[in-house]
Design goal:
12-stranded mixed sheet; 286 residues; alpha/beta; Protocatechuate 4,5-dioxygenase, Chain B
Amino acid sequence: MTRKPCVSGQFYEADMNQLNEQIKESFLSKRGPGTLPANKREKDILGVICPHAGYAFSGACAAWSYSSIAEAGFPDVFIIIGPSHYGTENPAATLQDFETPFGVVKTDAEFVNALAKKGNIIIDEDAHASEHSIEVQLPFLQFANKDRMKDIKIAPITVSGKTDCKALGLDIKETLIDSGKKAVVIASSDFTHYGRNYGYIPFSSDIQKRMYELDEGAIKHIKNLDSGGFLNYCFETGATICGQIAIAVLLSAVKAKKAKLLQYYTSGDITNDYRNAVGYAAIELE
């Protein structure tokens, strides 16, 4: 079975040609990398952190993560970990393929089934039916891999507050070893959600500066490859980083030597309205 898009025409353009232009603009915009993906395939990366908001807001930031992917060796599977926005308690994978305006992205059912047998995720198609955090990554993933689009395989996983990040990270490591496959892990996450719309107003002055500082503190732990410190920081500050569990699983799943911040800004920087604003970060792990 194939999962149909649920946020095309909302988060991104539903028409293939318009979507192609929208993503091009994300790469070439002043907040984007400034160039289109090079497909050099010379780098060796383990994962990225990438936002999942509407492309009009976070597309330029996402382009940095996918520029990194385009320059890296093509993996056997892209493991995409996103937060569940609809209250699904259990970490859940799907065996369905995903349809986008660019075509169908194949799910690596063999890998997903092997991962599920480890015991820390379940197969739950309903958990993915309306979830946008993984879907929004796919057109960028296809665009960045135009030279290998038909070869793309993904392992889509949603996580929640009840996820055992270390256990799931270990499961991913073991499944990759067992299968002999090479992976790039994509943690789908926006950063701090500020304002009345998000129920989070820890400060009311110098909002732009203080949002930057709040997210900078979280990013510092990511740069230190410290998943525990990162989660403690989110708990202690209340930082509303929606994909914090996905990020922690990424840090547990890969044996990175360094994490590099590629881009950061907020939606307020685009709208010039910080009453309700969201932070976006693109981070590469090598």
